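Hey, quick one: can you model this chain's 3D structure?
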Amino acid sequence: MKYLMLVCVDPSIEPDVTAVEMDEWLDRAGDARQLGNELCGPGDGWTVRLRGGKPFVTDGPFAETKEFIAGFDLLECDSDEEARAIAAAHPVARFGAIEVRRFAAN
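Sure thing. Here's the predicted structure for all 106 residues.
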């Protein structure tokens, strides 16, 4: 099954992740991790809506939230339990949140 793992952080908390910890997590995730990357902050993004056939673009995120998505990983796992274990081992889980969602169609 495929899963999207969203790595969420609170900008008021200083990240405490070392390169070694990330390398260890990448080793643990192994072949289950198909793709992943860090994202720019919400201030560097935009929201696009189509209303009445016209695009409306707003700089930054639509809603003010305490946490924002800082990165993502695409996982291919045999079970929900495997996906949860990989997410729980992510270094950001200590101070942020890891949201995992199954793809609707596998």
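One thing worth noting: The chain has a mean pLDDT of 91.
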